[in-house]
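Q: How would the structure tokens look for this protein?
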Amino acid sequence: MTTKTPPIALPVSAVTCLEDRAHVERTAVLDLEAGVRRLRLGPVSALAVDRTLHAELTAEHPATVLDARIVRAWTPRGPAAPTEDDSALRRREHALEEERLAAEQRRDRLRARLDLLGGLAADLLREIGEGVGFGESEVPRWGRELDRVDAERDACGEELRTVDARLQALTAELNATRRAVELAEEEPPELLAHVELTVDASAAGPARLTLSHLTPCALWRPAYRAVLDGDALTLETDAVVWQRTGEDWSDVRLTLSTARSSLASDPPRLTEDRLTLKERTSAERRTIDVELREEEIATLGPAPVLGLPGVDDGGEARVLHAPAPVSVRGDGRAHRVPLSAFTTVTSSEYACSPELSPLVTQVTRGENLSGHALLAGPVDLVRGGGFTGRGTLDFTAPGAAFELAFGSRDDHRVVRHTEESRDTVGLTQRTVVTRTVRLHLSRFSPAGEQGDRVIVLRERIPVSEVSAVEVRLRKEACSPAPDAVDAEGIVRWDVSLPPGGRRTVTLVYELSATAKVAGL
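A: Here is the predicted structure in token form.
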């Protein structure tokens, strides 16, 4: 097989983009001859994984693929338009080439016009000679015509001399720029890959070739855009695709998958877990060491991995399809591909957790009506026709509810004050710690605003894991009484604030421990 044989084009027809690679499918119609033939197809990406190459022929007559391999060779780069990543010197060279080409075209047009004007002057002189022979005398008209033609020829000739001078200057500057580029930037050869295919056909005729392989340097992540209009929320799902495989994907069928093809290639590491028993000392029997620790309330999900964060698919491989053919350039930049959009009716609440933040945030809850799972990803938030910020969306199954926070309200203010007292009561020397939390809420409303607004306040109390420590919520001392207390120690109030109103919420709880407890 000689490399001078013109290759058969093998365009990309479908792509399945994974978390960190892509499965590329190519199709072409081959005009086969009877017998065994070797074909050269491509070019293809030089990053194609050889061991994943698979070729299949479909034809009316028997035709099989005997061998398929990828052959790579270093090839000098051909001329191409500069990009933003190229140097200023190379962009100047391209601009000079474009200007010189335009000047050459202008020079050719001027020369053609001069030739036409010369022919017009010759025709006019012949007309004058014939008119004089017939006894005609139109000296004023002949003079005006000759003067007009001469003026046109002079103007065209002057412009041609200007263009020739500019062309010479451009040629000299372009030659100097090219020499500077050759000295400063040595263009390395480009690694090109072709597929060499050996086929065996029983008869001549067309056959459809389907070839597929894996390619690295391609990945995707989900992204969303949420538009809130009153109680209606429109959620648009996009896929952000990056690829630098060395070739462009033009009008391909794009499939997005969360399958981790390389996950099973690394076996789990086995580490020794040794358990030992020892006798407690007398001091350890007399005391119980406790400590306060923070725990994040979370649901079950995939274990976090180090490095580039992957796609949270809920532990099950998900497949999404682009509704229309898409084009993704191989420039390594982010390309957004629309996947789906739906509108749902939401319920909103104004929530505040003063221990974490003094801001009152508008939180909306809606139902996933997209027909597919919403993977975890960033969300561009739009409210009232304007961009309000960016949030995150957790994994949401089809038909399940999801939450989105649309930023804080500037017309609300929450101030938090805490007090603590410690006392020892009883004959058992039981330690009692009393904590009081006061929350001051204010609503600043413009003139003419009406209607109360319900603010959902959430505070927390500790949750004990040992019987020697007890936590008690003093509801009689709370003002007002909490509306709900869950098993995780989250206390909630639904506080109604009128325009310009102020409210104070008080939370009181006790931590009591026996004398054996240390570290409280």
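The first strand starts at residue 12 and ends at 17.

Residues 88-133 form the longest helix (46 residues).

Upvote if useful.
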